[in-house]
Amino acid sequence: MKGALTRFRVMAYVVGVFLLLLVVAMVLKYAADMGGAMKVVGPIHGFLYAIYLVISVDLALKLRWSIKGTLLVLVAGTIPFLSFWAERKVVEKTAQGVPL
Q: Where are the transmembrane segments (predicted)?
């Protein structure tokens, strides 16, 4: 379980950072008509988010999270800054032995 939690923590941060980069790329695309960054960051974030989903579901199954808790963690990778908060909550709850 420790390995699954570590993988989740790493991916939560990676997806969070790339989501912030995606927001910057979107601003550049629509505000400054510079769409090149979206062509690079968009697919990378999508690929990393897919990995985040798999790793999150794996951890949810191992820790017996509720469906609601699992869905909230999965959605956290789509809202800027939320994946960082979700990572903290998952680590906190796991240390306490409380399922999500």
A: 12-32, 44-61, 68-86
- pTM of the predicted model, to two decimals? 0.90
- Asked whether 77 and 53 are in contact (CB, 8 A), the reply is yes
What mean pLDDT, rounded, does the chain reach?
94
Measured in whole angstroms, how far is the alpha carbon of residue 92 from the centre of its chain? 17
pLDDT digits (tens, 9 = 90+) for 5-26: 999 999 999 999 999 999 999 9
CA angle centred on 96, ends 98 and 14, rounded to 5°: 85
Tokens 């690079």, residue located: 40
Report how far apart the first and last C-alpha atoms of the chain are (Å, whole number): 15
60 CB neighbour count, 10 Å cutoff: 22
Task: Give the SS3 label for residue 2.
Answer: helix
Gyration radius from the chain CA atoms: 15
Q: How confident is the model at residue 100 (pLDDT cuts 50, 70, 90)?
A: confident
